[in-house]
Amino acid sequence: MGGDELIELKFRLADGTDIGPSKYSLRNTVGSVKEKIIAQWPKDNQNGPKTINDMKLINAGRILENNKMLAESRLPIGEVPGGVVTMHVVVRPPLSDKNNDKLKDVHPNKNRCLCSIL
């Protein structure tokens, strides 16, 4: 694979909408592709990622690592000559703040087993 090859990618969001398709160099890192996804994220979608670490890209059942290039991510390029590769975007839910965690600890007995032996 040459470094100047382009691949056409589109990204499927959880609500079924797509971003793309757009062409990317195989020398792009997964992290730089995620930055472009964040820039193109639908404005009406409230649950969009804030950083590249807030989302995962999944292709062919594999989670792609931010520091790897697309060429290193084993994309099925040869299988779809001239076709568009669809990747799935999973956004991590926002972390709860510490105040909510304290409220959960107020009732430690809630996690106890409620089984009754007759």
Which helices and strands, and how do they pair?
Elements: E1 6-12, E2 18-25, H1 30-40, E3 55-59, E4 62-63, E5 84-91, H2 98-105
Parallel strand pairs: 1-5
Antiparallel strand pairs: 1-2, 3-4, 3-5
Brief write-up:
The protein is of the alpha+beta class and 118 residues long.
Features:
single chain, 118 residues, alpha+beta, 5-stranded mixed β-sheet, 2 helices, 5 strands, 16% helix
Strand content: 25-35%
SSE succession:
EEHEEEH
Largest sheet: 5 strands, mixed
How far apart are the first and last residues' alpha carbons, in Å? 68 Å
Helix and strand content put the structural class at: alpha+beta
Approximate shape: elongated
CA radius of gyration: 20 Å
How many strands appear in the DSSP assignment? 5
Mean pLDDT, all residues: 78
Query: If helices are DSSP runs of H or I spanning 4 or more residues, what is the number of helices?
Result: 2
Biggest sheet: strands side by side, in what order? 2-1-5-3-4
Classify the helix fraction into a percent range: 10-25%
Low-pLDDT residue spans: none
